Amino acid sequence: MSILIDKNTKVIVQGFTGKEGSFHAEQCLAYGTKIVGGVTPGKGGTEHLGQPVFDTVREAVVATGATVSMVFVPPAFVGDAVLEAADAGIELAVIITEGSPVRDMQRAKAYAVKKGMKTIGPNCPGIITAEECKIGIMPGSIFKKGNIGLISKSGTLTYEGANQVCNEGFGITTAVGIGGDPIIGLSYIQLLGMFEADPETEAIVMIGEIGGDLEIQAAKYIKEHIKKPVVAFIAGQSAPKGKRMGHAGAIVSGSAGTAAEKMEALSNAGVHVVKSPAEIGTKIAEVLKK
Amino acid sequence: MNIHEYQAKEIFKKYNVPTPNGYVAFTVEEAVENAKKLGGSIWVVKAQIHAGGRGLGGGVKLARSLDEVKTLANEILGMTLVTHQTGPAGKLVQKVYIEEGADIADELYLGIVLDRAREMPVIMASREGGMEIEKVAAEAPEKIIKVAVDPFIGFQAFHGRELAYGLGLAKEEISSFIKFAAALYKVYMENDAEMIEINPLVKTKSGAFIALDGKMGFDDNALFRHPDIEAMRDESEENPIEREASGFGLSYVKLDGNVGCMVNGAGLAMGTMDTINHVGGTPANFLDVGGGANAQTVAKGFEIILKDPNVKSIFVNIFGGIVRCDRIANGILEATKLVDVHVPVIVRLDGTNAKEAAEILKNANIKNIITASDLNDGAIKAVAAAKGN
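Output (structure tokens, whole complex):
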């Protein structure tokens, strides 16, 4: 078992023939991901990486039966691409693109919710079910199969966390990079719930960052709903206070979004909070050997 | 990206958001000319910097004669203004805004930001205008009225009524307030603003609403479709080293410690700083070299880190994903030829091809380069090196 994706998941790539899309789609295919086609408007009817190319997502879905889309469309057009995926009945869009306008993503996310399409990202490394299916840009080799679920805002900390867990002799069920943009798709709460329900996942690693209050909400949720052990790290304890001109964003959420505040909330919820990312692996070992 | 008050007011005017008349001035002579152009007998001389709290810091003053305009402009232009948002170093004032006086009956607050939790813009209003809104939020949050607007329906009259009745406005004021808020919402949405703040929003004795101040920040990712706003960028407001770094795709923030850091990915960069702190050291900077680290970006990174004389060692922490570690190791070797790196460099390379990378560094046998096996080991070695051990 795993969450969201496995070896049978059929994936299409939006922005399939572009430089980034091509490179990473090839890596995913090599990992074993069932990429069954791609979409690049104007290139429909051709073939790329041995897979059919379509002009629209709708055509691709009808022809291939894909349920997941990996999105590499450039920032100016990514909002439209996600709307198209939602409209065509895609169930999960994994949005890798970095630099998408907030307004566009806000609209796309709202429409995705309305259509019942889940989204991951944008500006994220993607999702991987170890040794089965990789949809994203992470180095597949570090994710050994095992029993730890991983959720992270940061890309490289996803790798760091997974690597430590595997070096300690454990492995990963599914790892999800949720992205750090103001508007993101699946977040800690939904994913924690999925890992709690997944019989193979025994413990969860949660990696957060300063800013916003998603980790605070997650702490409340963990306290009430999560029985599996959770190890957490919050990056940015030593970051200087925001140099931004306005602080209005913090007023809305009613929290300053500091690392200290988040760590305290998580600790109070019974989460094993580590002060350095270098302790993620050893903490997992300690928690699971108890 | 942030802009100045006078620029925000230019945008407001295009959308019929009422503001007092005014002109920006770069010299004292210009300031006096502007006052003459405006006419009247009372003017406000306002320092233009990217920070709030200018009034309390002495950057906003009232003039009752042209002579006073001259004296005040002379005083404010060239001053280093320190406010609660500039930090202790303050900011140099290079331009002033000369504005006509307003007959103030009441001061309110009005702002629009993105509510990340609800994933929609939220309009905030308060009767406590002219005060630091952060303070109001902390001490009396009930005094801030918040109304979220679903962009699928846009700003509607009922949103305006919720704000107006929440503020306790008089019957005859409500329709002009709603018109004001609707126009401001349009400014926010059509320009991809990240935040707008009007503090104070003034109610005049004749019952009109006027934006006495205006602060705007924009979504950097959307600037490509707003060349007119991009043109308002004031580079003198940005840190020159941070700006230089961003020109090379590097994200750099200077800190006060002595262990320089070069890391790929913002999260790991922060995590590296945290680890340095955790093992008893202090980071000198945040530096994210991004996903495509190569010899040129690494060399530039060394150059920027070494501009800080406090730096006593550098910790290079790269988790090679798609970028292979052996290529980064070669990049580091090349970079040390391009830049004179005179402090110990602790290198931790992990991920794809990490073993090959370690061999390359070992065989190069450069005395300044120390390899580390993992994040913790690297942090300990870097902190020890900074202490001269």
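Chain B has three domains: 1-20+103-238, 21-101, 240-386.
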